[in-house]
Amino acid sequence: MKKLFTLCITVLIIIIAAGRPAAGEGKWEWYNPLPGGQPIQMEKIGADTALALCPFGMLVSTDQGETWQYKPSLQDYNFVNMSISETGTIWACTRSALLKSTNFGDSWETVRDGLILINYIYFINDKKGFIFNGDVVHCTVDGGQNWDKSSFPAFYEIKSVFFINDSTGWGCGYNGCFFKTTNGGKSWDSRWLLYDGDMKGIHFIDENKGYIFGKNNAYPENGKYIWSTNNSGKDWSRCFKNQTSDLNFENWDFFEDKGVLTGLDNKLMLFNYTSFNRWDSISYDHDERITNIIMFNTDVFIGWDARGQIIKSTDQGKTWNIKSQSMTLDGFIKVYFRNENKGWLLKWSNFYSTNDGGKSWTKNSIDPNYIYRDIVFIDDNTGFLIASGHSNYYLYRTKDGGMNWEDITNGSYQYNSLAASPEGKVFALVYDSKLLKSEDKGDSWDEIDVDSVNYSNKIYVVNEDTYIVLGNSYPSRLLNITRNGGQTWNYILSNKNSFYIKAVCFIDENIGFLGGSDGCIYKTINGGYDWEEKNDGYAYCNILDIDFSDESNGWAVGAMSAIFETTDGGETWDKKEGSIDGRYNSIYMLGLKSGWIVGDNGTILKYTGDGSPVAETYVSNEEISVMNYPNPFRDMTTLRFNLKSAAHVSTKIYDLSGQVVADLGSKYINPGDYEMQWQPGGLPSGVYFLRISNGKTTAERKLILER
Q: How far apart are CA 85 and CA 467, in angstroms?
């Protein structure tokens, strides 16, 4: 619970997963790209059927790409690759599991799981197939019931495999290598075609004649190539070279003796498949670069573009019609919501705002050369925005809910992070160990020194007096905390087990979490003096952001598009499937009912829950235990408390300013369990506090009212 030109874009909602929710029954939904996330792979079956694999499901067309049906996986799957056998069986893999479908994605059967970092699969038929992960190849000849494992040349990430029969096959991949097997994959021979090259596609006409396309990573000015062989891969020669350094071959497909190659800006290359002796350059009028393509015949092509939109052409690729929808494929840096309806997404050249809970988004830009880094609001109208560009950093303020932004930059500061306290104060963290605080909505700023934290990276405000600053001093990330409004600072973590901190989240002044390198999450229950690791960590899966819906339910996101979930206050974390490419950069939870995740490739996800807690959670001291449900709530919530010994007890509810908004009574009662209901009447949405006191001690519970 984290305390100009315009273009309006309407967004449809597609459910992508129905895994176990954080509270009650809930689900994550794709909001962009639509309908099922950025397509990963596209294949054709027969004369009319096309399949597009998306991270959380399958798009199916049976009319040559004219219409598409989206079939979500309805599991915690995050697909990364697929292979289709001759009978139409679809084999698809996640990072750790192999699945198959015999009904075009209506249902999926897990064939094998427990693997690590699968990067490619290939099936010759319904019985024989391969799983490639790292330097190991897993082979099955009985449809996945049994598997044999063989070694594979290390350090080569497979990008493409092609078998001409059960025994003879070829592969290519990263580091410019070509591979061949003549014994059905039991062993593989390898050789370099191009040092530090990236081989992306391989195809053979017969046992002797084949082609590979790729590029030179070390010397991009030397171009992109297509190689051909006439002796089964023993010798290769270049049959095409594109010397334009900023253009890449992306994908190809074939129909009869014709082929098409894509990846060039506003151009397709048509060629004679059997000889590669004729090339025709076709210019097209589509605004985005086409990155993937399949040919149904010499006239009808379908594919997707650099924005993740599925497109179709019926005139050999000259003109294209859009068949799906996408706002952008640029990565989002941050998501921030003021309430259920009003929110913002930040990215490089612009930022988006919504007033209807993400159903439509307005594209905003102060300067198209800016990077928009952070945003926070202290009330419905007053907000602050950090941007950088033209070798400077800028601070902007809005007084009308984001319709207009004014530059309030002090040129001597390099702004980096924003935060707001529950009391309405705004904080701006700047480099050179300075924290700026404003108590008058940004009209004036007080400067606070942050001890020994150079290159300050992130500010987190727990309450009026407690602030946490994440530094970025090499070689370790430092964490500093003040509990007296910045008068003094203390280190609470410094290079713990070489752990690099990337995410900070505190539920209250005592309970907090750190996320960072290798997927590790740490928890403190004493305000940061001591930390305990709460998960085993995951290699290469850096945690980039953490947020909690309430005291028990929280989420963490990061690299490899990973999502971690806790339902027990951060004691244990359940890792959801993540894809190999991309990452989730930011998460913002709006209580138990909704939340948002944004990341690379234009990813926008929304969580929708029913708002009910998984289990009753009490906040307690030695004398009193107190909880409420539901929380958050709309019209009424039930307050429940347990009294250990007889006492005169008062029950009151306060707002953030400390004013009593409801006095629920005061009387002498005996030990036991008690329950009452509170209806907030006309109070506005926000955070309130239930305080039950027996004269000696007070138990407090945070109440979240959502209208």
A: 58
- What tokens does 93 get? 């893999």
> Please, which pLDDT band fits residue 333 given cuts at 50, 70 and 90?
very high
Alpha-carbon distances of 340 from 31, 444, 563, 686, rounded to whole Å: 15, 30, 22, 12
Q: How many angstroms separate the CA atoms of 326 and 316, rounded?
A: 24
What mean pLDDT comes out for the span 102-106? 89
Among left, alpha and beta (phi > 0; psi -120 to 50; other), residue 683 is beta
Cα–Cα distance between 190 and 667 in angstroms, integer? 84
pTM: 0.66
What are the helix and strand counts (H, E) for the chain? 0, 66
Q: Tell me the three state secondary structure of residue 41.
A: strand
pLDDT of residue 569: 87
Would you place residue 5 in the very low, low, confident or very high pLDDT band (cuts 50, 70, 90)? very low
The greatest distance separating any two alpha carbons of the chain, rounded to the nearest whole angstrom, comes to 96
Among the listed residues 571, 513, 566, the one whose alpha carbon sits nearest the alpha carbon of residue 544: 513
Report the sign of the C-alpha dihedral through residues 489, 492, 497, 500, in that order: negative
Q: Give the integer Cα–Cα distance in Å for 403 and 581.
A: 35
* DSSP collapsed to 3 states, 581-593: CCEEEEEEEECCC
- Please answer whether residues 189 and 181 qualify as being in contact, where contact means their C-beta atoms are separated by less than 8 angstroms: yes
pLDDT mean over 382-390? 93
Residue with tokens 């009490």: 618
Measured from the Cβ of residue 233, the count of other Cβ atoms closer than 10 Å reads 23
The beta-strand segments (E) located in 536-636 are 543-548, 554-558, 562-566, 574-575, 584-590, 594-599, 604-609, 619-620, 624-629
Confidence of residue 406 (pLDDT cuts 50, 70, 90): very high
Residues 482, 451 contacting (CB under 8 angstroms): no
pLDDT value of residue 73: 74
Instruction: Please say if the pLDDT value at position 351 is more than 90.
Output: yes
Are the CB atoms for 101 and 92 separated by under 8 Å?
yes
pLDDT tens-digit readout, 25-57? 567 777 877 666 777 889 999 899 999 988 778
Give the span between the Cα atoms of 352 and 357, in whole angstroms.
Answer: 12
